[in-house]
Amino acid sequence: MLSDILHKIRAQRDHEPTVISVGQIWVDITMHVQEMPQPGEFTNAPSVTKSASGSFHVLQAASRMGARTELASIMGTGPWSTMLRDSLRRSHILHTGPTRPNQDNGFRIVLTDGMQKSYVAHHGAEAHGDPGVFAHVRPQRGDVVHISGNALMNESSLAVNAFIQQLQCRPQGREFRIVINPTNTLRLVNDQLLENLVLTRPIWSMNRQEARTLAYRLSVSFDESATMRVNAGFDESMHALCEALGETLRAPVVLRAGSRGAWVRQHGKGVEHIDGFPTKATHIRSAGPAHTGALCALLAEGWDLESSVQIANAAASLAIEHNHAGIPFCPTYDEAAKLVSDALTAPKKD
């Protein structure tokens, strides 16, 4: 989509726009190996990196795009929690949630040979709590609440379920937006929570695999015959999947596809394809969190969904290009806007 996005004026607010995440954060310990070991084999990891992970990347992206950001979930106390708090502070992310004493945040070991990845997770304070964990979350007009798939598992799902059933979260008259990127763990979410999420009518931001998982869970059928053809099959199948999910969910759907951009459907409207930006695949992690964080930041600023997705597409592309140790690193708003501006003013190819 080549829109007049660059001429938009940021909406006026009576308070600072805020992106609030109820997702979990933990530490990733990424071990780079030359070859994935077989059971019982020994291998050496020439390099190891430690980084904040989970919903941290969404909030970091939103912060770099100019939004005020808050983490509303549980944090622990201990060495991993200290590392995470330092990361939050450096990224100007405020922790507003409770602190669980005498328990550290969890960590995840990621083993990768550059092509394949294996994960082993140990949950900590972030995964525990009661249904009242998010009782303190009171979004104001225009704010954005981010729900990640990692918050839909273990005990934290009880808190998410309690939050979305509050009167303030009902779609009729809701003064703030809810954005959910469900991740592929959606296949494990219990039926009652999934039903309540659907009834909340959030903005669903997903990649193709996540969308197909959601379609399966909701018994949504769509025409995949286009994928059997050589030309244009992918685009047509993404259009069909986005349309089918949007019709069933009766809520906005953003279906991401990397450099191909995203397909967007708002309730009562047709599907719109918003172009992406070519990028060199030098990353070992998905740029989905960068896209989601940028999307949330722009929505909090009062942008419409289509224009927000346009800038988020650019932000995700640049995040891959500017990755830190293979982890996409979101650009600033100005950098993403420049990429869109360059695309809009570039001479059209014959």
UniProtKB/TrEMBL annotation:
Taxonomic lineage: Bacteria, Bacillati, Actinomycetota, Actinomycetes, Bifidobacteriales
InterPro entries documented for this protein: PfkB_dom, Ribokinase-like
Span of domain Carbohydrate kinase PfkB: 19-327
Protein name: Sugar kinase
Keyword Transferase: yes
Molecular function GO labels: kinase activity
Domain of life (superkingdom): Bacteria
Pfam family for this entry, one: PfkB
Residues of the signal peptide: none
GO cellular component, one term: cytosol
Organism of provenance: Bifidobacterium pseudolongum subsp. globosum
Keyword terms, alphabetized: Kinase, Transferase
